[in-house]
Amino acid sequence: MATAKKAAAKKTTDSSTKAEAPGAADMLNPMKNLKAMTDRLQELNLTGGAGKLLESGQKDLQALMQANEKSYQGLQTVVQRQTEMIKNAIAEWQTAAKEMPGKDPKANLAKLDELGRQSFQRAVDDIKELATLAAKSQADAFELVRQRIQANVDEVTKMLQRK
Questions:
Q1: Contact 111, 121 (CB under 8 A)
Q2: Percentage of residues of the chain with pLDDT beyond 70
């Protein structure tokens, strides 16, 4: 019985070595897989590839840093402008309070009404200005990243066209 099993095992081993398709044991053998992968990698033309990858990575980081800087500068501009707007609004309200005409409630109410309308319109205009500043800042930062992505796509396209 033991000899029958050995003979069957030998028969399957002999038949698997004759076939060109790798068996399960071959596929699980890490040394054969590593050798095959090494052979394939040696066939690739990677002349200067590591240097190009490093250079590309550096350019990517530079683009991200520049985009971050643009975004930060835009945020600073928005905050500075908001501060100016608040200071101006406070100064106007202080001036209006000092210039209130005497004790006539109707005149004071009319003056406050007009001041409120002007302040509301100015606030709407200021919001538009701040939104425009923020949008421009983000668009500038995004453009830097977009240009770098396009450069990466162009580099890959050139590499693929050489083959």
A1: no
A2: 69
Distance CA 50, CA 46 (A): 8
Q: Smallest Cα–Cα separation from 148: which of 47, 51, 55, 49?
A: 55
Segment (H or E) for 3: helix 2-18
The string over 20-49, giving b where at least 16 C-beta atoms fall within 10 Å of a residue's C-beta and e elsewhere, is: eeeeeeeeeeeeeeeeeeeeeeeeeeeeee
Residue 120: count of CB within 10 angstroms of its CB: 10
pTM beyond 0.85 = no
- Cα–Cα distance between 83 and 107 in angstroms, integer? 31
Report pLDDT digits (tens) over 100-116: 767 777 877 787 888 88
pLDDT tens digits, 114-128: 888 888 898 899 999
